[in-house]
Every structure is written in structure tokens, then in C-alpha cells.
Write a structure and sequence with these properties.
298 residues; alpha/beta; 12 helices
Length: 298
């Protein structure tokens, strides 16, 4: 865990998959095993549990409670555990935030409400209401490819006035907006789009909330360290070597392909829940080729 206010959740975090049994039920022992693997073997400072990659829309509240409790028991004494509590219903998001806080999580991830397409005033009210619900630090999740509505710079500036809103997971792909937000706030930025890890770090992101971190956590730590030391030649080299991994994991959908990779490695993952579908044999063959090109052998 971290005590650095400029990097409130650490450097290398992964949006952890939710391991399932073959019948689709939650695999609590698998969640604990995977969390320990990521922290102990993949150089993770923290885990985001029930972000997009954790299949949050199809995991019930009771199931989420059980998984959070299991992950906290497994790694909560040595890694930051952030609970994804954002939904497109403010009242529901508040309930989830309070429930996660009672369990003892270290922070909250609150995604832009999806499907409803709220105006910026609605986003600000939603984020501040969830942030008001607990004393925990909050990371906003800006991902318009999924939520449709981006969080505009002015909205982020106003949200940053809330003492609990301390960070942004950025998957907007707008480096100009990131730079302007950083110029006007103290929000800590985390890259939420693996292909843009290097450029986001170069403009001041303090870390990553990654999907490929399931497989290449130490190399992401190396990338961050190279940028922070000013060794951009090394950073570019590390990033270039990771490009096939980024491509391979996102050829279809991140959760699908990461679960396939973990399954091939003998780590807990299990199937995905509908409406997602498991990777085909052809997709797994392509994934093997992509990851091998990026230095990861399945």
C-alpha cells in the first residue's frame, strides 16, 4: 500500500478478472489465488476489483461482497484493494460504496454512468454523491467508448474540489484534456488504456490500471520507472516490446482474452458470463502467437 499523496493507489494496478467455476459460479478460492499471484509474482501495488475486466455488470451485489472480502483477506495487508462501485444508478452506487467501505477496501473506482447519457451537471452530482457516502479516496473512471459521455475538463476541475476525489483512471484517449486537467488540478492520473500507457505517463500519469498487467506486471513497473527517471529511450524500448501483448489482449475483448491467457497459464480464471463468450480455438491460437511476439509464453 502507498502513503504517497501524489500516487494515492500505487504505481502498477490491474483491473482483476473475476474467476468463475465452470458452472459460472464465483470461485472465491481462485480469486484469492489470483490476487496473491498478481501481488507476489507480478509486482502489483494494488488491484481494482470489479472494474470492467471484472465483469461488474453481470456480477450480483452479494457476489461482489464475497469476492471483495476474499481478496482483502488474501492481499489486503500488502496491496491497495480498490472496489469498483460505479453503476448508472446513483443510489445503487452509493449503497455499493458504503458496503465496500464496511468491508475495509482502501479506495473506490466510480465509472461514468453508462447508457443514461447524463449531462455534465449530472456527472458531477453523481460523482460527488458517491464521494460523500464514505471517507474513502475515489478514482473516477473516464471511458467514453463504454459510457458514451466523456468527463469534460471543467467537470473534472469541479470534481477535484471534493476532498475524497483524488484520481482519474483515463481511457478517453484525449491527451490534451489530460494535460489541461493536470494543469488545473492535483488529480493523480492512471492510464486506463494499455496502448496509451507510455504517452499518458509522459504527460504526467503516476501509474497504470492495466488489463495486460495480469501477464506483464514487472515490465509495466519497468516502463513507469524508465519514464520517471527520464530514460525515454528505455521507456520506448519497453513499450515497443509490449505492443504485441497490447494487441493480442484487445483483438476481441479484454476480459475474454485475459481469461483465456490465464487459463492457458494454469491460473484461476474460468469462463466469462454472458453476454460475453469465451475465446474460440482460433482466437487462442492467435493469442499465443501475439503473446509470444511480446515475450509471454503460454
Amino acid at each position: 500500500m502507498t502513503s504517497d499523496p501524489a500516487r494515492p493507489f500505487g504505481r502498477v494496478l490491474t483491473a482483476m478478472v473475476t474467476p468463475l467455476a465452470e458452472d459460472g459460479s464465483i470461485d472465491l478460492a481462485g480469486a484469492q489465488e489470483l490476487a496473491a499471484h498478481l501481488v507476489d509474482r507480478q509486482s502489483h501495488d494494488g488491484l481494482v476489483v470489479f472494474g470492467t475486466t471484472g465483469e461488474s455488470p453481470t456480477i450480483g451485489d452479494g457476489e461482489q461482497h464475497a469476492v471483495l472480502e476474499a481478496v482483502l483477506d488474501a492481499v489486503g495487508d500488502r496491496a491497495t484493494v480498490i472496489a469498483g462501485v460505479g453503476t448508472n444508478d446513483t443510489a445503487h452506487s452509493i449503497d455499493k460504496a458504503r458496503s465496500a467501505a464496511r468491508l475495509g477496501v482502501h479506495g473506490l473506482l466510480v465509472v461514468t454512468p453508462y447508457y443514461n447519457k447524463p449531462p455534465q451537471a449530472g456527472l458531477l452530482r453523481h460523482f460527488t454523491a458517491v464521494a460523500d457516502a464514505t471517507e474513502l479516496p475515489v478514482m473516477l473512471y473516464d471511458i467514453p467508448p463504454r459510457s458514451v459521455v466523456p468527463i469534460e475538463v471543467e467537470t473534472l476541475v469541479r470534481a477535484a474540489e471534493h476532498p475524497n476525489i483524488v484520481a482519474v483512471k483515463d481511457a478517453k484517449g484525449d491527451l490534451g484534456a489530460v494535460m489541461w486537467t493536470k494543469a488545473r488540478t492535483d488529480l493523480a492520473y492512471y492510464s486506463g488504456e494499455d496502448l496509451l500507457n507510455l504517452p499518458l505517463l509522459a504527460v504526467g500519469a503516476v501509474g497504470v490500471v492495466s488489463v495486460v498487467g495480469h501477464l506483464v506486471g514487472p515490465r509495466l513497473a519497468e516502463l513507469i520507472a524508465a519514464v520517471e527517471s527520464g530514460n525515454l529511450d528505455k521507456a520506448r524500448a519497453v513499450n515497443q516490446a509490449l505492443l504485441p501483448v497490447y494487441t493480442g489482449i484487445f483483438r476481441t475483448q479484454g476480459t475474454i482474452m485475459v481469461k483465456a491467457a490465464l487459463r492457458e497459464l494454469g491460473l484461476p480464471s474460468g469462463p466469462v458470463r454472458p453476454p460475453l463468450v469465451d475465446a474460440t480455438a482460433e482466437q487462442i491460437a492467435q493469442l499465443r502467437s501475439d503473446l509470444a511476439a511480446g515475450g509471454v509464453s503460454l
